[in-house]
Amino acid sequence: MKSVTPLTSTFTHPFWAGVRACLPLAIGVLPFGLIYGVLALQAGLSQPAAQAMSSIIFAGSAQFITVELVRQGIPGALLVLTILVVNLRHMLYSLSVAPHIQHLSRGWKAALAYLLTDEAYAVIITFFNNQPKSPQKHWYFLGAGLTLWSGWQISTAGGIFLGVVIPASWSLEFSATLMFIALAAPTIKNKPTLAAALVAGVTALLAFGLPLKLGLLAAAGTGLLAGALVERFT
Amino acid sequence: MNIWLVMLLGGLLTYLTRLSFILLLGRGAFPAWLLRLLQYVPPAVLSAIIFPEVLFREGQLHLAIDNLRLLAALVAAVVAWRWHNALLTILTGMLTLYLLQALFA
Fold first, then answer.
1. What is the pLDDT along chain B (105 residues), one digit of tens a residue?
2. Is A200 in contact with B76 (Cβ distance < 8 A)?
3. Distance (Å) from the C-alpha of residue B101 to the closest C-alpha of chain A?
4. Do A182 and B80 form a contact (C-beta atoms < 8 A)?
5. Measured between alpha carbons, how far is residue B66 from residues A208, B48, B72, B73 in Å?
6. pLDDT tens across A100-157, in order?
7. Gap between the Cα atoms of A159 and A73, Å rounded
8. In terms of CA atoms, which chain A residue is nearest residue B84?
């Protein structure tokens, strides 16, 4: 890592401001990293694979979904497609932060893009919008992103450690379903999003028997369509 | 497909979604219809996973009062909708399931 610029004392540097801003969030994601680690092992992933996913994919909801679909034995190509669709929202974050870091080198852009999670975006965009002229915004971004990254890796390791101990009879896989419910609730905020959720859910039930678990894609597709139609005609 | 290959491809694609506009800004705008469609991805994909998990048991639709997971999920959904707190949702849902199992299973 590049050395911290010496213009002020170390802990007032924007890097540390980013670290401080993300510490509560990093602590907040610890339980989810723990649950993810436990579920990954119960789904049959090896310990190295479970840990590696947290740094290779580094996106909580996509990791929960991947682990659940692995447990159901869904084919790999469909898994990759699902990960892509679920993570497409990052393009919005990318679009949103891009103007703030246009002046940086390609190396900086490549590194910061890797750290652009839901939580990091929420924190840095607030800072960026409050201090659009700050010349060291990217250090804040780096501090925030690395803090969240560390919290996620450490809690994943903790979950993998616990996963060896926790028996399957605890029905802990149900906590993944509950996590999805918790993630879905705030996304349903009007009629079109409610229609998307209901139509996708019912389609998933009707299409449950489709080969290669294509029901998931069919359901997501009809859900998107339902959302768009309700938006258009209300 | 090997799980490592799934992770590498999934991780690469995820990274590209994050890098996309940071690298490409100014080379054409994002179509507005796609932006609007994107907001329906989370509710659609998540409920497409939730519904069968809660309503199917061993490949059969199980829409009845003795489906304890369904009851626990409904309680969790109310908590999630009311408080928007993921940890509270998971804790309430798991405790409800354990309580129902202790009482009825």
1. 799 999 999 999 999 999 998 998 755 566 777 778 878 888 898 899 899 989 988 778 888 889 999 999 999 999 999 998 888 999 999 999 999 999 987
2. no
3. 11
4. yes
5. 21, 22, 11, 13
6. 888 899 999 999 999 999 888 888 888 888 887 888 899 999 999 999 999 999 999 9
7. 22
8. A186
Contacts of residue B40 in chain A, CB cutoff 8 Å?
192-193, 196, 223-224, 226-228
Chain B positions in Cβ-Cβ contact with residue A172 (cut-off 8 Å): 94
- Give chain A positions within 8 Å (CB) of B19: 94, 109-110, 113
Q: Where are the domains of chain B?
A: 1-30, 32-104
Q: Cα separation of A169 and B37, whole Å?
A: 40
Tell me the domain boundaries of chain A. 13-171, 188-234
Nearest CA in chain B to A49: B4
Summarize pLDDT for A62-81 with one digit per residue, the tens.
999 999 999 988 899 999 99
Q: Look-up: residue for tokens 């907040």?
A: A28
Smallest Cβ–Cβ distance between B17 and the set A77, A94, A188 belongs to A94
Nearest chain B residue (CA) to A174:
B94
Given a contact cutoff of 8 angstroms between Cβ atoms, the answer to whether A183 and A165 are in contact is: no
Which of A75, A94, A180 has its CB closest to that of B22?
A94
Interface contact flag, A197 B77, Cβ < 8 Å: no
The b-or-e profile of A181-220 (16+ CB within 10 A means b, else e) is: bbbbbebbeeebbbbbbbbbbbbbbebbeeeebebbbbbb
